[in-house]
C-alpha cells in the first residue's frame, strides 16, 4: 500500500496552528492595542510627562491675565501722562466744578468716564442724588410731625441722618465708583461694593422704619406712616411720600448694584 498520497489530517492542521507561522502576526496584532493606548495617553513618548491640553488652557488664561494687566497699566500710564500734561499747562485736573452754583466736588462724567460706562455712572449719580433727596425730604416730613406734636428728638435725629448720610455716601461709595470707572481699579470696585451694599440695606430699612435702632418716627417708612396717619392725616401723607421715595431709591440702588457687578465681571 502506498501511503505517500494519503491525506494526513494532522498535516492539514499544522499550517493553521503553526506557532511559527502565526506567532509573528499574533503578537503584532495584540501589541497594537497597548501601543495605541500608549500613543493616546502619551506613554512611551520622549516627553511623556507633558500634558498638552491642560497646559495650553493654563497658558491661555495666563496670557489673558497678562494682557489685561498690561492694558490696565497702559491706561493708568495714559491717565497719568494726561494729568501731568494738564498740570504742566496750568490746567487744574481735579478742580471743583459741581454743583455749578456752589462747586464743592470735582465731577465730569462726559470727559473722564469711558463712553461705554457713562450711562451706568449717570445711574449711580442719580442714586447718590436720590439718597440726598430722601434724607432732605425726611427732614421736612419730620418737621411737620414735630409741629403736630411729634417731639423735637425725631427732628434732631433726622438732621443727623442727613448731615452724616449725604457726605458719607459720596466719600464711601460714589467717589470710589467714579474713580473705579475712571481707572478700572479692582480695589476701588471692592470698596464700592462693600459700602454700597450697606447703602442698599439702609434704604430698605428706612422704607420699613421699624421702631428699633433708629427712633421710629425719625424715618419716613411705612410703619411710621401708619402710626402717624391715625393722629394727623397731613403728617401721614408726608410720611407716605417719604416711604415712596425710599422705595424708589432702593429699587434704583439695586439696579445700579447689579449693573456695576456685571460690568466688573465682564472686565475680569
TrEMBL record:
Annotated localization: Cell membrane; Cytoplasmic vesicle, Secretory vesicle membrane
GO cellular-component term (any): trans-Golgi network membrane
Protein topology in the membrane: Multi-pass membrane protein
Keywords carried by this UniProt record: Cell membrane, Coiled coil, Cytoplasmic vesicle, Membrane, Transmembrane, Transmembrane helix, Transport
BP-aspect Gene Ontology terms: protein transport
Region annotation (Disordered) ranges: 1-31
Coiled-coil stretches: 58-85
Range of residues in the leader sequence: none
A Pfam family hit: SCAMP
Domain of life: Eukaryota
Transmembrane intervals: 122-149, 155-174, 186-213, 233-257
InterPro entries per the UniProt record, alphabetical: SCAMP (IPR007273)
Similarity comment text for this entry: Belongs to the SCAMP family.
Function summary: Probably involved in membrane trafficking.
Full protein name: Secretory carrier-associated membrane protein
Organism: Cuscuta campestris
Taxonomic path: Eukaryota, Viridiplantae, Streptophyta, Embryophyta, Tracheophyta
Amino acid at each position: 500500500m502506498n501511503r505517500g498520497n494519503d491525506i494526513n489530517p494532522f498535516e492539514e492542521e499544522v499550517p493553521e496552528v503553526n506557532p511559527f507561522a502565526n506567532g509573528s502576526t499574533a503578537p503584532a496584532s495584540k501589541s497594537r492595542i497597548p501601543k495605541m493606548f500608549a500613543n493616546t495617553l502619551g506613554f512611551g513618548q520622549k516627553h511623556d510627562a507633558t500634558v498638552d491640553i491642560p497646559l495650553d488652557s493654563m497658558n491661555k488664561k495666563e496670557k489673558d491675565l497678562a494682557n489685561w494687566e498690561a492694558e490696565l497699566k497702559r491706561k493708568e500710564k495714559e491717565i497719568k501722562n494726561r494729568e501731568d500734561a494738564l498740570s504742566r499747562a496750568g490746567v487744574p485736573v481735579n478742580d471743583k466744578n459741581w454743583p455749578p452754583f456752589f462747586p464743592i466736588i470735582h465731577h465730569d462724567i462726559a470727559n473722564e468716564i469711558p463712553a461705554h460706562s457713562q450711562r451706568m455712572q449717570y445711574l449711580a449719580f442719580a442714586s447718590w442724588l436720590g439718597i440726598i433727596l430722601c434724607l432732605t425730604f425726611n427732614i421736612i416730613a419730620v418737621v411737620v410731625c414735630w409741629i403736630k406734636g411729634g417731639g423735637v428728638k425725631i427732628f434732631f435725629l433726622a438732621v443727623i441722618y442727613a448731615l452724616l448720610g449725604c457726605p458719607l455716601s459720596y466719600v464711601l461709595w460714589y467717589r470710589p465708583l467714579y474713580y473705579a470707572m475712571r481707572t478700572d481699579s479692582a480695589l476701588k470696585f471692592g470698596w464700592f461694593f462693600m459700602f454700597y451694599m450697606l447703602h442698599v440695606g439702609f434704604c430698605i430699612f428706612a422704607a420699613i422704619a421699624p421702631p428699633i435702632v433708629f427712633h421710629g418716627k425719625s424715618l419716613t417708612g411705612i410703619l411710621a406712616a401708619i402710626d402717624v396717619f391715625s393722629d394727623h392725616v397731613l403728617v401721614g401723607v408726608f410720611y407716605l411720600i417719604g416711604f415712596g421715595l425710599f422705595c424708589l431709591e432702593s429699587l434704583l440702588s439695586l439696579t445700579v448694584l447689579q449693573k456695576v457687578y456685571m460690568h466688573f465681571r465682564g472686565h475680569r
